[in-house]
Structure formats: C-alpha cells, structure tokens
From TrEMBL:
Binds 1 FAD per subunit. GO terms for molecular function: dihydrolipoyl dehydrogenase (NADH) activity; flavin adenine dinucleotide binding. It comes from the Bacteria. Residues 359-465 form the Pyridine nucleotide-disulphide oxidoreductase dimerisation domain. It comes from Modestobacter versicolor. Disulfide bonds join C45-C50. This is Dihydrolipoamide dehydrogenase. Belongs to the class-I pyridine nucleotide-disulfide oxidoreductase family. Its cofactor is FAD. NAD(+) binds at G184, G185, G186, Y187, V188, G189, C190, E191, G271. One of its GO terms (biological process) is 2-oxoglutarate metabolic process. Keywords: FAD, Flavoprotein, NAD, Nucleotide-binding, Oxidoreductase.
Length: 474
C-alpha cells in the first residue's frame, strides 16, 4: 500500500449533482477543489433516479397524450416498443458510463479522485482507491460532505435475504419482470408502479397507510390511485408487510393480515437514509450515521470547516434542492475563504424559504402531480389562518384543447390574513410545467391583489390561475 498527500482549498466528498455544484462554485470563486467519488460521477440522479425514471415514463405519457386528442389518436396504430423505450433510457444514462461527466469536471477545472473517501481528523480525507492504495487529501478551507442518501429497508423479517430491488434496480432493469411487487406508495413507488405496469409487468402496490402520496393533498393520492387501478395495478392500501421469503424463483410477502402476495421481484420504495455511516465522522467528534445537522450556510455546528450539503442533511431529498443548497454552501465557503463574514440573513428562514416552506416537487405519474409550499393539513397544523380553493382544470378552455375529456384539479391554500399563497397543487396531464409559476408566487409571497393582474394567456391551461383567483374572491 502506498500513501501520497495532496492539498486543495476545498475537498468534496461525493460527485453527484450536489457535489459537482459545490466544487464548481468554489472554482469559479478562485479556489481549488477536488471531488472524491467511488461510483459514477454525476451521482444518483443521472444514472438511477431522475433521468432514467422519467425516460421510462415518458413514452407511455406521450402515447396517452396522443390518444387523448381526436384525430391524432387515429395515428396510434400499435403499442409502445418496450425494447426501444429501455434503449432510450440507456442512452440518457450514457449506458452507465460517466465519461461525459468526467469531461465536464475536468473542463471546469475541478480535480477528480476515484475511491472511497473518509474523514481522518481536521480537514483531512483519506481516499482508498480500487487498487488498495491510499491518498490523503488536505483541505485548506473546507470539506463538503455531499454523499447523498440510499434506499432504506424497512424492518421486515427476511427482506434483505430476498434481494429486493431498490430504486436503482427499478430504473436500470433490462426487462420488465412478469410480476412486480412495490412496497411503498410515495413518489418512487407510484412512479415505478406506473412505469412498469405500462411496460408489461403485472404490478401489485402495497401501501401501509390509507392513501398514496401521503405528504401531498389527499386529492393527489386519490387521483393517482384511481389511475393506477385503471392501468391494472393491484393497489392494496392499509397493508403492512411482516415477512418476506423466496419460494423458488418467487418472492413471497406476508401481510399483517396473514395473506401472502407473490411476485417475481419486489421493489422497496419505503424511504431513504443518509450515506453517512462510513465517512469517518467519528474522527471529528460526530456520530456516524444519520443526517448531518447544519446551520443556514450548511456548515456543521462546532466543526466550522465541515459542510453537509444535499440529501445528507435530510432537509429535502430532491436533486434540485441539493443544487440549491450547493449554491448556498459554495458561496459561504468562498466568502469565508476570502476572510469575509457570511451574511446569514441572506439564508435566514424568512428569506431562504425553499427548504422549509416552498419546496417544489413533481410526481411524474398519470396524472402528473405538481406541488409547492404547504398543504391544507400542514397549514392547519401550523395554526395558520387559511382557506382552500379548488378548481377543476378541465373547465379551462386550454385544457380542453390539450386533451379531449381532460380531468384535473388545481388546489390553492391561501393565507387569509396576509392574502398570499401558502401552497399550490396541480393534478392533471402536463401540469408539471405549471409548477414554476406557483413556486414564484409562493416564494415571492405575491399578494392576491397583485396576482390578479398577472393575466394568463388564452387558451392555455395556465388560465386556471385566473379561475382560482375568481373562486377565492367569490
């Protein structure tokens, strides 16, 4: 074993989109930076999450859109080419080759070290490379932990032994399993149930709670449940799983009712946990495992040179939120490296609301669900004076142009004291592209009186904004 040592201004553990952005901002700010990565540069989103999952869903979505328009529907004379859909997915992941991402890193002036990095005391990281050699990286100013998260396995007896799919296997599978069991009815469970049912699997979705997408407005989960059932998915709500086993080639799940459910593969989509248990946190006085506690600049309290950015801090486990935090942390690192004071007021809860009050998210099911801000239940829990306004999107002229028989719902949660939007949810085909307008309205706390003068173009689905305001004003 050989050991060498290199020094950089900033050492970044994890070369996913969050780590790439932290390093890029540091370099743009005049610092040197190195990324440490043991897997593929580009991370989860590029190879096992956002990009492959959405390409698996897009073909079915495009077919549904064509079939929903008279005239265009006549041109659809066959079914989806599953092999071509999987091939297109493979193209978006570059066939799980990160050469293009590495090229971008090098072009941005960022160094890259392959291997598993662990903290080894103050501002030191030891990287163990594939050949067993070690490289010590010393940071002049900061170490940013951007190691992300991984699928969590619920405490089900025997579950690890049946070799369950995680989202990684679900998005990279080479063929549709004949029968797929999905454990969990959140974003991943609903999207992958939609995708694989449409690609030829017989899907059974088991959800412990009484509704799908439980953190969104109830109408969202109800609409997606109805759609999944219409596709042929066996949706079983209020169903816990107590044990799992293999019976030959079959996976057998034992439900808390005593019933057994059988399939060829089981996808566990029951939450995530931080990748923080094997990165040397104990060497700097922190408890290994769990999410990192951070302040408004993403700095770890008590360890002023250490930052926890993206999924690893548990604030919002979304790619776009990791990039948002990367900008926050990157600028803080550069500012402190220059010997200047970071103005935390710029990232105070009253200003930087995205992590807490205005996180946008899209569920790419059929129908799509786009949501930002608080739900009506969350507003009630916080004791905020509010009113919920709903409007059927299908009643908007633009929606009827978009698709024959368009059905969908727009839901606004309005703060009745301040007359601003607390949250907005859109449910329906193609609504993902409506979400950013809602995000701006919620983040900007734009008064209803001003939104009234933001006139939507006719005939577009965006006209639902006008209808929501009219309904609120009565």
């Amino acid at each position: 074993m050989t050991t060498a040592e290199q020094t950089y201004d900033v050492v970044v553990l994890g070369a996913g989109s969050t780590g790439e952005n932290v390093a890029d901002i540091a370099v743009r700010g005049g610092l040197s930076a190195v990324l440490v990565e043991s897997e593929l540069v580009g991370g989860e989103c590029s190879y096992w999450a956002c990009m492959p999952s959405k390409t698996l869903l897009r073909g079915s979505e495009a077919l549904a859109a064509a079939r929903a328009v008279s005239g265009a529907a006549a041109a659809v004379t066959g079914e989806q080419d599953v092999a071509a859909t999987l091939a297109r997915r493979d193209g978006f992941t570059s066939h799980w080759d990160d050469a293009s991402q590495v090229s971008w890193v090098e072009g941005a002036g960022i160094a890259l070290v392959r291997g598993h990095g662990r903290l080894a005391g103050e501002k030191r990281v030891v990287v163990t490379r594939a050949d067993g050699s070690e490289l010590v990286l010393v940071a002049r100013h900061a170490v940013a932990v951007c190691t992300g998260s991984r699928a969590a396995l619920p405490p089900v007896d025997g579950l690890p032994d049946v070799q369950p799919w995680t989202p990684r296997e679900a998005t990279s599978a080479k063929e549709a399993p004949r029968r797929l069991l999905v454990l969990g009815g959140g974003y991943v469970g609903c999207e992958m149930a939609t995708a694989w049912q449409q690609l030829g699997s017989a899907v059974t979705l088991l959800q412990h709670g009484q509704q799908l997408l439980p953190h969104l407005e109830p109408a969202a989960g109800q609409a997606v449940e109805a759609s999944l059932r219409a596709l042929g998915v066996d949706v079983q709500l209020g169903t816990g799983v107590t044990a799992a086993r293999r019976d030959g080639d079959e996976v057998v799940l034992v439900c808390d009712s005593g019933d057994e459910v059988r399939g060829d593969e089981v996808l566990v989509a029951a939450g995530r946990e931080a990748n923080s248990d094997d990165i040397g946190l104990d060497t700097v006085g922190l408890e290994p495992g769990g999410y990192l506690e951070v302040d408004e600049s993403l700095q770890v309290p008590g360890v002023p040179w250490l930052y926890g950015v993206g999924d690893v801090n548990g604030r919002q486990l979304l790619t776009h939120m990791g990039k948002y935090q990367a900008r926050q942390a990157g600028h803080a690192i550069v500012t402190r490296a220059r010997g200047e004071q970071v103005d935390l007021a710029d990232w105070s809860p009253s200003v930087a609301t995205a992590d807490r009050l205005a996180t946008p998210s899209v569920v790419f099911t059929d129908p799509q669900v786009g949501a930002v801000g608080l739900t009506s239940a969350q507003a009630a829990e916080q004791g905020l004076p509010h009113r919920v306004v709903e409007y059927p999107i299908g009643d908007v002229a633009g929606a009827s142009v978009f698709a024959d028989g368009y059905t969908g719902t727009a839901i606004a949660v309005v703060d009745t004291e301040r007359e601003v939007l607390l949250g907005v949810t859109f449910i329906g085909p193609g609504v993902a592209e409506l979400l950013h307008s809602a995000t701006i309205a919620v983040v900007g706390e734009v008064p209803i009186s001003r939104l009234w003068h933001a006139v939507p173009s006719y005939p577009t689905i965006s006209e639902v904004w006008l209808r929501l305001l009219e309904t609120y004003r009565g």
